[in-house]
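User: Show me an example of a complex going from sequences to structure tokens.

Assistant: Sure. Here are the input components:
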Amino acid sequence: MPLLMLKDLPRYECLLQAGAEFPDLDPSATEAFLNLLHTGDEAFRVLETHLANHDISHGRFGVLMALWAHERRGCALPPLTPAELAERTSVTRATMTGLIDTLERDGLVRRGPATSDRRMTIVQATPEGLSLINQILPRHFQMMAGLMAPLSDVERKTLVGLLQKIVARAVSIAPPGGEPATATAAR
Amino acid sequence: MPLLMLKDLPRYECLLQAGAEFPDLDPSATEAFLNLLHTGDEAFRVLETHLANHDISHGRFGVLMALWAHERRGCALPPLTPAELAERTSVTRATMTGLIDTLERDGLVRRGPATSDRRMTIVQATPEGLSLINQILPRHFQMMAGLMAPLSDVERKTLVGLLQKIVARAVSIAPPGGEPATATAAR
DNA sequence: CTTTTGTCGTTAGGGCCCTAACGATTCCAC
DNA sequence: GTGGAATCGTTAGGGCCCTAACGACAAAAG
């Protein structure tokens, strides 16, 4: 699942050279963009490697985390529905159906009927599911701390600040919803 | 394709609170990690939105870029093979077979027999493929420059430096090759 | 030569993600 | 009440990625 389909990032001299040839190419922006994708890829790879040790995929982890967080938040809350889970994990309802299918097959979650609305289903983590997520979480926290260990507290704050500037820009360039408000290329 | 399966990132106060409950959870490391994945996701989303305007996927773009770069590098070089393309784009040979299948179906690349080794195939971009990539590239460069526009040159350098520290750490935690040299959890 | 070993591209099968459409159910006017 | 709009979960079909295994071919070892 390489976001960045490049074995090696181009060296900066090559970017400078290419920038001389293509007026649209901004070498420092390209370098930052490629490094961002590459680092996101590497961080994701570390996460997946860790999850694979517990025989669980990224998608399943998201569902279990959402169920775990909901369970922790309060006992009297109404159980989560597939639509709610899809919303919280940023996948479509169709994808959530598939994820719940395999999680249920493996005995980690359980589907049940919703009492209030007969269109709905409720999804709950089984004791096995909760046990698995409780087993994964400590190592998950350690993985994040270990990955960020080479950065000081100040550097972490700096990084977060820079990343948030990029996110804000990304949202204004291409709104998440799909079609942009003011078309850039269309028409 | 959300790397980070979370609609909203947790607020820092929540991370602090959770950190008090879970000794392994480092709030600032978690914040940096989640922001990194989220920003990588957003940057990737902008890239895919741009490529979708040209009816091309991320995987296909990588193959066309590799062919384009190879074509530019020199005329006398031997043509690329599927194995070479897989290596350069960081996918398996099996995946490359599928990518070339669809690219060939759409008339963007062409397979041919290799003269030196009858096991091999050579892959070349068709004029249509080269035309498409030449049409995409200017906007691609503009997209990267636009996304990084809110960052000054100094900030870009700072960002790249911080990201490279994380990449180095990621490689030492989980080597790309698969099995780690010195097992951390196993055994 | 012959045999072994390794690499080529491909196929088969699975996971995760998407869009589009479906029957069932609920809600909101009228 | 009752008909239309909206939402529920699901299914069908496709794209991209993976691992495992295959037949074909090449190269090194005997």
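The lines above are the inputs; the final block is the predicted structure for all four components together. Chain B has seven helices and two strands.
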